[in-house]
Model the fold of this input.
Amino acid sequence: MKAFMLFGHRFLILMATVLLISCSSLSVIRHTDPAAAADAIQRCRRPFLDIPYRVVHSIEAALPGGKTGTVVGVTVFDPAAGTIHSVIMTIEGFVLFDARHDKGELRVDRAAAPFDGGHFAAHIMEDVRLIFLAPQGRLADAGLLENGSSICRYYENQDRIVDVVVHQDDTWEIETYRASHERLRKIRAFSVHDRIPGILELTGFESSNYSLRLKLISAEPVTAQEPGVRSQDSE
Done:
């Protein structure tokens, strides 16, 4: 019994240590020379397109409360203006979510269940901005990871840290953390062609854990004046 209690005590200490490490560790950035840092900064721009685009995805969602389903997401974004219009609809075209982010202001035109709970609309638009628009915060560091991938670290408002990692095969990852290094979100991009990923995976690690898997249906450049999103429900 005493041996079992001692083992249990050590196990708890070990688990506490593992949890502490998982909540408080950032990737270690290696520094070689200024040219390598400049190259890393250039490569960190690859995930973010430079002109307005309309992208359409099939989205497999696992939402809080055990809800799952497949929807269609249509996003129009303008990197120069920093604007985003995002619509999520059923396969039949019924709009479940319709919101815009313009000059720091969020406007939600529709949010049907399950997208109407709490601050979920703000979280969705934050995810969309994280995927399609470059970080707005201060570039704090840049260099290489141990495996040779390029990494740039940004400090944004509200004490949030954003790591952009571009691998040697041009796939990429984006991770966000609180100032305490608690991980908030992770995005992974696969099957990248001409800077546009065929598959995106997003995981949220906050109190309401959720995951999204986005499969690209289409991507096309648009003019800044072109209307954003049309759906069967809005015609």
Remarks:
- The first strand starts at residue 53 and ends at 63.
